[in-house]
Each structure stands twice: as C-alpha cells, then as structure tokens.
Design goal:
mainly alpha
Length: about 650
Amino acid sequence: MSFITSRYKSIALALRDDTSADHLRKVGLWTGVAASAIFVVGFALRLYCLDCHSLWHDEIISIEVAQRGLHAIFNDRFGWLGNQTPWYYMLVWLTILPADPTTTAVFVRLPEALAGALTVPVVYGLGREMFGQAQALMASLMTALSVPLLNHSQDVRSYALVILFTTASIYCLLMLQRSRKAWRWPAFAVLAVANSLIAYFAVTLVMPTLVPYLLWVLWQLWARRRQQTRQLAVALISLLLVALAVTTTLADISHIAKAPPSLGQLSPTYVLATASDILVAFTQFGLANQIQHWATRALLVFALLGIYLSLRYGRHKLGVCLCSVFVVVPSLILIVLSSSNPVFARYIFFSVPFYFLLVSNGVVAIVASAPNFHVAPASITALKVVSGLLALLMLIPFILGVCTYNSPNGHNRVSLRQDFRSTASYLSAHARPQDMIIVVETPLHGLISTNFYWHDNPPAPVFSALDPTLFTQMPKASVYWVISMLDYLNLPREIAPTSAGWVEVARFEDIVILQEDHPKSLRDSFSTVVSRIVAIIPNSHFALTLQGCLYQAQGDIGKTASVYKSAVLFATPWDEELKSAEGFDALNMRAEGWRWGLTAKLDQPGSPQVHRWLSERLAQDGYAAESRTEADLAQALER
C-alpha cells in the first residue's frame, strides 16, 4: 500500500505552497509507478484461473449460436438466442476457432478478460481528468479489485466490453473538452459504434445516459464553430456514424419480446428496494451478511459525502455531476423496466466505475474541504491521517472479496457457475448405456450444459425431472440423479439422505450426483426426491413445480393445475424460452427444441401456452397419453 501513502503525501504537498519542479517530478514518477502497478494487478487477476471454472449456461448459449456458423448468427436468432447482437456472436465465433471451448475456455473468455483489464487504466484516466491523481488511483484500484467486474471479465458475455467502451467513450469526450483535438471525435465514434453493435443494452441503457453530456460537448463546439470549423465537420461525420449504428441496433431490437413498463408497480417501497439491490450488486464481496451490509453502506456514505462537499465548495463539479448521472440514470431506467420485464443489475455494471470515482472523491474531499471549515493546521494533519486510514479500511472488503472469489469454497458466494464440466466428465466415466441420468435442477441449465460438453453424445439416456415422458421409461440398471439449485446453494449438501436407496457418488460446485442401483419404481424414487426437496425448501417455486410434476404423473389434473398456478417465478410472464423451442423445431433441431420447451415449463409452469406446445410435441413423438394429459392441463390452467 506504499502508493496510497505516497498519494496522501502528494495531497499534503498540494495543500501547501510547495509546488517546485522537483516535487512535481517525484509525484508524477510515483503516480505513474502506482498506476502501472494497479493495471498489472487488474490484468493478472483477470487472466488468473481463466479456465478454472466450467462454462455456465449463458456462456454456452453464446458459444452454441456461434458454433452454428455465420448464417445462423445473422438469420437464426430467435427467443432467448436473440438477446445478443450478431456482432457479439461474430466475436465469439472468432474466439472458438483456435480451440474447442469444451477443452479450454481460455480463448472464448480472453476478449472479456482483456476488456476488464484495460478498463482499469481508463478509469484512472477518467479520475485524473475529473478529480485528481489521488481519486484516480483509488478508483482504478477498486476497479481492479471489484469482484463483480472481475467475475464478468471472465464471462463469455458482453458486459466487460460495454464497461470498457462506455468508460473510454466518456474519456474521449472529456479530452475533447480539454484539448479540442479533432482526431478524438473519430476515436469516440469508434468506441460508441462498437458499444452499440456489441450489446443491445448499450443502446437502451448507455446511450440515454451519455446523450446529454454529448450534446453539451457538441454545443460548446458549435459555439466555437468559426474557429473550429474542421473539428465541427469531423464531429458531425463521427456522430452520423454513431447514429447509423444506433439505428441499426434499434431496428434489430424490434424483434425481441418486451413489455411496456408497468408504472403502477413503481411504489416508493419497490423503487427503494430495487435500488438497494442494485447497490449491493455493485459492491458484492461475498463476505458475511453483516460485513457486506456495513461495507456497502460505508461506500455509499463516502460517495454521498463527496457529492455534497464538492457541490458545496465548488470542487470537481463536472466530475461529480457526470459520475452521478452515470450511476443514477441507468439505475432509474432499470427500475422502470423491471416493473414489467425480467432484468438484472449486471446490465448496468458500466455504472460501477463511476460509482467508485464518487466514493474515491468522497475520501479525498474530507481532506480537501478542511480549509473551508477554518480548521487548525494540526487538525488538518490529523484529518489527513484519519482519511488515509479510512481509505485503507475501505479497500479491505475489496481484497477479501478477491480472496473469496478465487477460493474453491468461496467462489460460489460471488459467482454462480455450476460445474457441469466436471459433472459431464464424471458421468462419461461412470454411466453405462443401460443406466439413466435424471437432472433435477433450477434453473434448467444442466440439460443444455452437459449436452454441450458431451457433444450431443451422452453416455446414457438423459431426462429432466420435468419431462412428461420420464415415467414411461423402465430403469434397467443404475439411475444417476444430478441435483442443483442456484437459488438455494445448500440443497445439494442437504438432500443426500442416508436411507433413501441412493448414495452420494460425487459433488462439484453447486451440484451433487446421487446413484441408485436398480430402483423398483422410478415414480417412487422421484417421489422421495421431491419429498426431500419440499422438506428443505417448502413452498418454493422449484418445490411446487416438482410437486406438480408428481401429481401430473399420477393423473390428477385438478391438483396439478392448482400447484402449477401457485408456482410463480417471474411476476411478469415472458415467452423467450417458448420462442426458442419453436425456433429450434422450425429448424428441425428437435432435441434442442425439447430442452427449451422444458425450460419454459420450469419458468412458467402455469402457462397454458407452454403445456399446449408440449402436448403438440408429445403427439408428434408418439406419446399419445402424455399429450392428452398436457392438453387437459392447458385447458385446466385457462379456467
């Protein structure tokens, strides 16, 4: 932490009149060393253990779309598969060329890791331009150590890229105000175009936040149009290219299912609760609840204190206003959208670096504002010491969070990545063709993930616990129960009883595999599994859905419909999974379509449309009795 000490020494020098060239040279040297060291730390953390964890469901979906080739990337994006832009799938397609992602995830995760690492020096540049060297170093260090940013820098999704492009775009605009060099407009255009093409939420969430500042910079340029004619022409051409990219992405977004905001749900309680969830997501450390609680609120206090002191005494007003806008506006948009659409805080993680800048400014503002209170010199010195100690204390949760993220037993506290790679490997080594594999899970990630690692060639027949055809099968040998639940990570540990006819044979991250030899009745075994889950997590969506499956197997339509109606996962229904199932069926990829149909059943067990689709598919596949049951269920659910 020597660089932090050096930074506070530089603040002390700045507050005095000693601004000799020698001191400035030394400060600049140590600042450069510290900034470089922070970048190296961020870079190393993002490359470290890049392939330690299994690819998870969302990553696998991105890879599978890319593996189907360029024609599918631009023409066969439907349902859930349409949530990514074709240009992002193109990037994934390039990264799967060097090596099979089932053998190593390094290449497919490398673009995001590099983007996450490059974000660190960009945040330093933002902090230096908007606030000062001390704030820049602190914010870049928090960015380097941030667990949410680190997690999504090792994720085959577009979040890290959007964070980099957004922060770099703002940096370009800031430098345009400082230096007025025309070439920065094309640089801004390249970054903004890349951002708009790489992710839909960059257009719906980033652009509405960025446009006001962009218009202000443009207005300043317009006021100098007589002296800056060439720069104005370059700016207008650059903005035209950005507008074309945004328009293209908006046209592409039109095919995505969405619902208008339900403003009636936006009560003060709802808004505050959602805002609190977003704040926790920004500063997730994986620590004990009480420590996490106090750390999150301490950072918020620093941010608010810095905003107040800066506005009160006229220091860094532009930086404070700009960072506040990039934290508040995306959060408000996300809260409004969440009233009628399933959205997640990670969509606005591009706000996190700006939040860290506000926090860092709060720490430094305590010292910088002291003269305004006519504090005695001795008290100012004490205040500097206290402020430095607070900065060190503030970094402790970040350091502990990184340790938790990289520890085998703590990783699942901050990153939910079920280890289906090891699960698939174990079952390939132990399951025989006459065995059965039954996946009991929520969300329905295991079917798709294990099939990905098996290259569509499983070692034994695989069924979901939600599959209506499950009880038409007769077990010939062993049954492997693969159990996982992301919403309740203790389930794999608690579900393994000692006298239920099975034994635990393997345990991986968030997954347990149970083996049962020659069960007499598959329905009885399933009933035992459901009873255990209901005892552990009663009245949960998962438990209710499994109970409904059991009643459905018994032919009790009325009770099944009643239970399915009460098993609500999302307050607002969505049809992405069902559209995915229909899309794969249209391409004659029936196995993929069936898996997505079962995913739709898990997410919306009370949807008549889902059961009607299942009925039609079962009829096509020759399961007449099961098809009639699904049709009867659809009618019962419509009543």
